[in-house]
Amino acid sequence: MSQKLKNKIEAKDTSISALLKDQKFTIDYFQREFRWQEKHIKLMVEDLTSTFNKSYKEENKRSDVANYQNYYLGPVVFSINPVNGKKSIIDGQQRITSITLLLIYLNHLQKDSEQKVSISELVFSEKYGEKSFNMSDEMREPCLKALFENGEYFIKDDDDETVKNMVERYNDIEQCFPEELTQNALPFFIDWFVENVVLVEITAYSDDNAYMIFETMNDRGLNLTPTEMLKGFVLSKITDKKQRNEINDLWKTEIQKLHDYDENADQGFFQAWFRGKYAVSIRPGKVDSEDKDFELIGSRFHNWFKDNYRTLFKLKSSDDFYNFFKNQFPFYVKWYLKIWDAEIDFNSNMPHANYITRWGIAESLQNPLLIAPINFADDNETIQKKIDFVSRYIETFAVKRAINSRKFGQTSIKYSMFNVIKLIRNNDTALLGKNLSVEIEKMDVDWDGTWNFCLNGQNGKFVKHLLSRTSSYIDNLAGKGTNYVFYHHPNGKQFEIEHIWANKFEEHRDEFEQENEFQDWRNSIGALLLLPNGTNQSFSSDIYEDKLEHYLKENIYAQTLHPLFYSKNPNFLNSEVIRDLEFKAHPHFKCKDIGERLKLFQRICEKLWSVEYFN
User: Fold this and answer.
1) Are the beta carbons of 163 and 139 closer than 8 angstroms?
2) Which of 210, 261, 274, 306 could hold 79 in an S-S bridge, CB 3.0 to 4.6 Å?
3) Cα distances (Å, whole numbers) of residue 25 to 92, 104, 165
């Protein structure tokens, strides 16, 4: 390779189709792990689908997509090996992995469509009948292959962080992708995604240049953030020099508190605060609609504040600005971070905040909901009660939707959730409980969905949450002092999902002719438990009657299968709540028994997530 070519750096805008079609990338050793979290993938899907919806019209032809609004997804940096010509990803691996997962999901969505878009070659190429994925990393191959062919992958104990994250993010895509784009609009969206989504592809022909680009992009960003621009505007409105300096110092202190949690926590805070307490409009779900308060706060909250400080915030004078930011600003920072703490570490005063971190809705909706009812004049006990009530509503909403296989991604629920934000804004505790009860009771799903609910390769995270909540609930009713954390994310030995039936179809031929029917019953929520890791593996293949003796040593929900439990614990059925649940022993475990456990599980859900909690 000539010195001139070695020193060359190329940059060009490109589409996803041009970037990925029939390409092969190795992943540089220093960034092999895929670490995108749920919030990252959901934000990407929300941004993409909302941008597409601004242009899409039902009467359009596919060719009209060429004139739709473009979307910039960011830069990617490659290095080309001078010896073998291989292309390696230096920066942008997280983005390309996420694009690949979305392409796989879209390919599954269109499998029964009459108008298919050819996108498989953007995921893999094929020679001599063998698939070879664009991102060549042997650790990813089995997972990508299973997701591409079956739409699911069962995580194994020896899978690394990347594989686990890929499966979870794929499941996040399935959960948050808008239902309205899965039918007639689907081929239009796929066309738009692969042709109108733009990236900047930067190619270096030496590793030195590639790393120099990588460092420049990641270390030298000096652009003012929206928070800094908001601060500049606020300080410009405070004319008294002493007051201005005081707010400047206060601002630095509060922003540092937020940055101690996350480098972008300041932006998340202002979006949650402004949406929760002040936003009054949201963009309708119609094509060509203009962005309103909710969207403008999400993209440029500093500009939105400048346009609305008089009307929505009632700030007119220098003193108004001074008093508002001296008092309101640190107050809401404090409670935003207290919510964050309660989401991370279980807090018995607001336990549901911890639950919704594991099973809730998009942060862009969840955080404003939690802030909305909090008032500056509220005492600590009142605020904690409000946070717990709203968290309870969010969890109930998410669990009921999930158990009925209904989506609750941001794009699917943002209009209804925004109405709830406005409904509960500044509520006292009694009114808040009443409003949230009404919202739950008018949901168009109920607990009957438990009958058809089964474990599969995509919902293990939810099943773990569901069993952790129900198992700890039964423990508590019986006076055992465990909680959700004990089962879901303990410090010590982890709990795993246990199939009561071993995976042995031949042992159940008296009830089933087809193995797929056996698997449906085996994976039913009525045939699942939580057991400590290692315990379930040690006897997972045993017949039920042998397993039953082990279950007598485990959590109460498992113990209730054994007849001896009731004779050894005669007071168990003394509680009226427990009697109403109608527990019974199961010396044998046939389809009839699974059906009875399903009904029991439904009754537990109805009690556990009852709106009586708000009274």
Assistant:
1) yes
2) 210
3) 11, 17, 20
How distant is the alpha carbon of residue 548 from its chain centre? 36
Residues 6 or more apart whose CB falls under 8 angstroms from that of 94 comprise 34, 35, 36, 40
Instruction: Decide if 94 contacts 74 (C-beta within 8 A).
Output: no
Number of Cβ atoms within 10 Å of the Cβ of 405: 12
DSSP state, 530?
E
What contacts 28, CB < 8 A, 6 or more positions away? Answer: 79, 88, 89, 90, 93
Instruction: Give the C-alpha separation, 501 to 515, whole Å.
Output: 13
- Residue numbers of the chain with a pLDDT score lower than 50: 1, 220-222
- Show the tokens assigned to 80: 């080309």
Q: Tell me what pLDDT residue 136 has.
A: 66
Q: Is 128 left (phi over 0), alpha (psi -120 to 50) or beta?
A: left
**Helix, strand or coil for residue 72?**
strand
pLDDT at 1: 47
For residue 374, give both structure tokens: 């909090």
The separation between CA 579 and the C-alpha centre of its own chain, rounded to angstroms, equals 36
Which 8-state DSSP code applies to residue 28?
-
Would you state the pLDDT for residue 538?
A: 64
What is the rounded CA–CA span in Å between residue 454 and residue 257?
Answer: 43
Residue in 555, 609, 36 with CA at minimum distance from that of residue 355 = 609
- The rounded distance, in Å, linking the Cα atoms of 444 and 401 is 9
Which bin fits 522, alpha (ψ -120 to 50), beta or left (φ > 0)? alpha
Tell me what pLDDT residue 60 has: 92
Q: Cα(348)–Cα(595) distance, rounded to whole angstroms?
A: 34
In 3D space, the residue among 549, 540, 536, 541 whose CA is nearest the CA of residue 587 turns out to be 549
Nearest residue to 384 (alpha-carbon basis) of 326, 434, 328, 334: 334
pTM: 0.81
The two structure tokens encoding residue 594: 């699974």
User: In Å, how far are 70, 79, 198, 212, 444 from 76, measured between CA atoms?
Assistant: 17, 10, 11, 14, 44
Q: Which of 327, 422, 311 is nearest to 365 (CA)?
A: 422
Q: How far is CA 567 from the centre of its chain?
A: 44
> Other CB atoms closer than 10 Å to residue 387's CB: what's the count?
25
Q: How many CB atoms lie within 10 A of CB 493?
A: 10
Strands 87-91 and 71-80: antiparallel
3-state secondary structure 162-215: HHHHHHHHHHHHHHHCCHHHCCCCHHHHHHHHHHHEEEEEEEECCHHHHHHHHH
User: Can you tell me the distance from the alpha carbon of 310 to that of 293, in angstroms, rounded to the nearest whole number?
Assistant: 15
**Chain segment 504-562, per-residue pLDDT in tens:** 999 999 999 999 999 999 999 999 999 998 765 667 778 999 999 999 999 999 999 99
Write the CB contacts of 221 (distance below 8 Å, at least 6 apart in sequence): none
Instruction: Give residue 220's pLDDT.
Output: 47
Each residue of 562-578: b (16+ CB within 10 Å) or e? beebeeeeeebeeeeeb
The span from the CA of 532 to the CA of 522, in Å, is 20
